[in-house]
Amino acid sequence: MRKRDRNFEVYRKSIQEQNVYKQPTAFVIFGASGDLAKKEIYPNLFWLFKDSLLPQNTAIVGFGRKNLEIKDYLKQKIVDRMKLEKDDQEIYDIFVDKNHYICGNYNDEQKFKELDSTIQKLFLDSNQNLQSANRIFYLAVPPKVYPDISKRIAENCRAKESFYTHLVLEKPFGKDTNSSNNLSAHLSKFFQEEEIFRIDHYLGKEMVQSILAFRFANQIFRRAWNRDSIESVLINFKENFGTEGRAGYFDEYGIIRDVIQNHLLQILTIIAMDQPISNSADAIRDEKVKVLKSMDPIKIEDVVLGQYVANEMGASVQKNAYTDDKSVPDDSLTSTFATMILYINNERWDGVPFIISAGKALDRTTSEVRIQFKQVPGNIFKNVCKRNELIIRIQPDESICLKMQNKRPGMDFILEETDLDLTYAEKYEGLYLPKAYERLLMDVIYGSQISFVRSDELEEAWRIFTPILHQIEAERIKPICYKFGSQSIPESDNLITTKGNYTFRRECK
């Protein structure tokens, strides 16, 4: 049940008062038959439509190389992902009728002309005259076809007159500095920066969005958010499954390009940035870029790499090694796990280690930020006074937890660690938390760039990671083997505790 509160009604009203809501809008999905469209784009567009948040005159056009009937495809292949409630059938049928499809190759000029003509015909005024519309082009396709598609969109399908054109791109945005810069240079020939929406879906997650409010709306943390109070920062990402189904893609990119250089680095910039001059997209992204510019390229001595192998034969569920996948070469050195330490060379963070750790085929699935504060100086208590730690859990079970010391009730005077716990499922019981793509699609439609990556952010991010990536590949550095389902890698834990100055703690209850 998508429970809403009265604040949502205020939000919906504010959306419906915008000019964009009243304008015709075409949403074009390239790669309409692919996994991303099936799992995220179509379901989230339906949920927005159901909530009356899509522009009131919206048409959805799929474009792909498979020959299919889009209405049958939606009803047979995607309906289960829509999670329809008992009264949704009528509105779902209306949504399906808004969908159209063009079968063609991504380098076929005539098909793009057909796409332009189709969009025009979908929006006729009361006198059956062609009507202009806003146009969103979502490239849910492999990055190698971005240049062909973007060029043909610009030459054949741009919105007319005073309507907007938005181009949406999924990561990866290149594999290193050169490939990323080449892609950015190509796109800049045809689109303005404000027309390009580079999606990093982590920026749409509820808890990532909440970090800004937590940091800059609470005086109690503003004063302590610096090197004087904070010992270390750990950004930790785990998945309890391997690369099944996408090993071919993953082997080309690895865990650093797939997760760390984008998702987790973006979280780091939000944690570390100074307060922006406003909450506008450019003001926030300006501060994120300043953080990135203050960072040196990563050194190999600050990195631990791993690759998962099969678990023990006696395990209750047998799990294969990464190289057991038919899409992966037997001698692959691609890392499925990486831990690295980064430093920010500015007044606020000088000397504070920022630890990023990410891995697949581990013991559980989680994503969180753990900020560990300095030890209390001159501890007057006989028993150990542990460091305070702030934990922001991004997924699953969104929460904010502060570990602090408290006197245990009783005649004696003994300290024990306790939690100040804000668990969203309890505090906001039953209230619907928007999916990341739901939020990001809204931003694309209504023109907010806050949760999207700017080209200079991208350039600086690759500057930090390209040297280490090239060194790993040139020297064919062999990753450490770890068993499927492991909690971590001992060498990683050692790096985190020694160079990272981090003390491992129990989980929040």
Strand order of the largest sheet: 14-13-12-11-7-10-9-8-15
- Under CATH, the topology of the largest domain can be stated as Dihydrodipicolinate Reductase, domain 2
Uncertain spans, ≥5 residues at pLDDT below 50? none
Count of discrete alpha- or pi-helical segments spanning 4 or more residues: 16
Largest sheet: 9 strands, mixed
- Mean pLDDT equals 91
Number of strands: 15
The coarse silhouette is: globular
**Which class of secondary structure composition applies to the elements?**
alpha/beta
CATH architecture of the largest domain: 2-Layer Sandwich
EC number: 1.1.1.49
GO biological process, one term: pentose-phosphate shunt, oxidative branch
Domain Glucose-6-phosphate dehydrogenase NAD-binding: 28-209
Catalytic activity: D-glucose 6-phosphate + NADP(+) = 6-phospho-D-glucono-1,5-lactone + NADPH + H(+)
